[in-house]
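Module 6 notes. Inverse folding takes a fixed backbone as the condition and produces residue identities as the prediction. Think of it as a translation problem where the source language is geometry and the target language is the twenty amino acids. Below is one complete input and output pair. Work through it position by position during the lab.
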């Protein structure tokens, strides 16, 4: 069975790889032709809508409860949950622009708004994943092996669920 750290790092590495493409795609807006932009952006939008949202849901249901219990209220997971809410809103916005781009070109205002959303999503995801890595250390040091295995199983199952 994969370890908690291995499972988390695998998920984070996959998300980071996609998040790292977002600034380059944002830079393409207004400079690349529509087909080139579609080819770069739409697969990333699909990944974001699927894997990123699934990961956030899985983390909230598997990591945050044990973390709150271990930290005995000293540090709330509320800021992390708030970031998830922000990310869900950004994913929705990006999904709207993906749908619009599938139907035709974006006008200048929509291009500017999409660029802004992509940069914001990139920034929040990068910081959020770094914070999750810190919290992962808390779990690694404080959960029993059986508890870690249970979290891994829940995380893997939650991330495999169809949308």
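Target side of the pair, the amino acids:
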């Amino acid at each position: 069975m994969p370890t908690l750290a291995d499972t988390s790092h695998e998920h984070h590495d996959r998300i980071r790889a996609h998040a790292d493409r977002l600034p380059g795609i944002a830079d393409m807006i207004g400079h690349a032709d529509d087909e080139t932009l579609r080819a770069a952006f739409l697969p990333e939008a699909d990944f974001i809508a699927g894997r990123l949202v699934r990961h956030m849901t899985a983390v909230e249901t598997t990591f945050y409860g044990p973390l709150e219990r271990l930290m005995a209220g000293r540090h709330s997971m509320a800021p992390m949950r708030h970031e998830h809410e922000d990310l869900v809103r950004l994913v929705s916005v990006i999904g709207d622009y993906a749908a619009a781009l599938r139907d035709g070109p974006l006008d200048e205002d929509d291009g500017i708004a999409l660029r802004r959303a992509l940069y914001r999503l990139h920034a929040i995801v990068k910081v959020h994943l770094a914070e999750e890595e810190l919290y992962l250390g808390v779990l690694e040091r404080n959960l029993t092996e059986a508890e870690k295995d249970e979290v891994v199983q829940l995380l893997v199952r939650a991330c495999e669920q169809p949308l």
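Reference fact for the lab report: DSSP finds seven helices and no strands in the chain.
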